[in-house]
Amino acid sequence: MIERELYLSRIRPFIGKDIVKVLTGIRRCGKSVMLELIQEELKSNGIQEHMILSINFESKASDFASSVSAAYAYLQNFAASRSGKIYLFLDEIQELPEKTEAEVF
Fold first, then answer.
1. How far apart are CA 36 and CA 101, in angstroms?
2. Which of 88, 26, 79, 83 is nearest to 57 (CA)?
3. Can you point out the beta strands (E) in 22-82?
4. Is the dihedral of CA 8, 14, 18, 24 positive or negative?
5. What distances in angstroms separate CA 37 from CA 5, 70, 101, one per listed residue?
6. Measuring CA to CA, how many Å separate 59 from each of 2, 28, 42, 73?
7. Which residues make Cβ contacts (< 8 Å) with residue 85, sequence separation at least 6?
8. What are the structural domain ranges in the chain?
9. Residue 70: exposed, middle, or buried by beta-carbon count in 10 A (0-12, 13-18, 19+)?
10. Taking a C-beta distance cutoff of 8 angstroms, is the pair 23, 31 a contact?
11. Where are the alpha helices (DSSP H) in 12-56?
12. Residue 15 and residue 17: Cα distance in Å, rounded?
């Protein structure tokens, strides 16, 4: 994986802040890689892996989140089973079938 230090240095000041962060860009520009790098950075800074939830809606492994309501229920269960701040990464969320509901997810 290519380390993208310039981009990471721009993201770091916002890590841990209680605001939603959105990475946007053209297709295949490395947004998914950046999400992985941020997760690795969190782990290297002491965040336990079980506090990180990463869902790639393009992956077959994410079939449990095949609808907005299923994804939301999974997220609620994930959060309820942990104590403290969780870190949520949603990749390719536009792949959810209910487009208008996904916009307010």
1. 26
2. 88
3. 52-56
4. negative
5. 10, 27, 28
6. 21, 15, 23, 18
7. 16, 51
8. 5-102
9. middle
10. yes
11. 31-44
12. 6
Structure tokens at 20: 């939603």
Rounded to two decimals, the pTM is 0.84
As given in the structure block, the two tokens for residue 9 are 């240095």
pLDDT tens for the 105 residues of the chain, in order: 677 899 999 999 999 899 999 999 998 899 999 999 999 999 999 999 999 999 998 998 888 888 888 888 999 999 999 999 999 999 998 888 776 555 655
CA distance 16 to 101: 27
Reading the block at residue 89, the tokens are: 């990464």
